[in-house]
Amino acid sequence: MTVPEQVPDTITRFRVLTVNTHKGFTALNRRFILPELREAVRSVAADVVFLQEIHGTHEHHPKRYSNWPSMPQYEFLADSIWPQFAYGRNAVYPHGDHGNALLSKFQIIQHDNLDVSQSGHESRGLLHCVLRLPGHTKDLHVICVHLGLREVHRRKQLKLLTERIREIPEDAPLIVAGDFNDWRQQADLSHAGLHEVFVQAHGKHARTFPARLPLLRLDRIYVRNVKAHQPQVLSVHPWSHLSDHAPLSVEIEL
Predict the structure, then answer these.
(1) Strand pairing partners for 143?
(2) Which of 21, 132, 135, 239 could pair covalently with 234 via S-S, beta carbons 3.0-4.6 A apart?
(3) What structural domains and CATH numbers belong to the chain?
């Protein structure tokens, strides 16, 4: 059993990871790799983990895969490393559900899942959590994002995301991360006071898809009222074989 890390009395820096888990399967659903994914997520030593396309329940998969966990996938990933977690169920079907989740070493004092689904078959959501960080009077707001594949849907979803951001106190630290599916690079949150960490560091968004040879810039980490250091694309082994998206990580300074 892994013993949880002791959280310092005052947090000044912490690491963030965002990953589209592809429901625990490799690209094209060829192999179930959630246990390997858990080990890879642990290796990053992130304090806050944004997850997209994560199963809550599934009726059939436990019968097909002997290593399917007896608990929701986000709880399996959290294990004893991240004592706090929240789940936003987006897609519901007869045999199960999936959505976004957040794993945190810090206390989650509030969470809300905003349904931003548009017409069609894509169920999408924004998981908004409020974290209480030791030694700080201002709570950290985080929003885990998974936007649609169609640009017309993404525009409407970005509008809803902006509206949610405007409800957050302007001086509160804020992180918005996840799979924006923004292959045409039209998403922009600068009008809401946020900047994207890879654009700030390197002048362009990170290539994240497909994971084995990233070409498209689909995933993002936007921040406000914090400093970002050393943004990284995790595209080498084992990550290149664990999802169809390469994860992103960054160190945050308060």
Answers:
(1) 128, 176
(2) 239
(3) 13-253 (3.60.10.10)
**Enclosing H/E stretch for 199:** helix 197-202
Reference 77, options 29, 110, 40; nearest CA is 40
- Which stretches of the chain score pLDDT less than 50? none
Give how far the C-alpha of residue 82 lies from the chain's centroid of Cα atoms, to the nearest Å.
Answer: 14
Q: Which two tokens stand for residue 225?
A: 């009222």
At residue 200, what is the residue type?
Q
Please give the biggest Cα pair distance in the chain: 49
Give alpha helix (H) positions in 129-222: 151-166, 197-202
Burial label for 10, CB within 10 Å (0-12, 13-18, 19+), is exposed
Contact between residue 87 and residue 101 where contact means Cβ atoms under 8 Å apart: yes
Report pLDDT digits (tens) over 175-230: 999 999 999 999 999 999 999 999 999 999 999 999 999 999 999 999 999 999 99
Distance CA 214, CA 124 (A): 23
User: Which position has the token pair 């994207």?
Assistant: 196
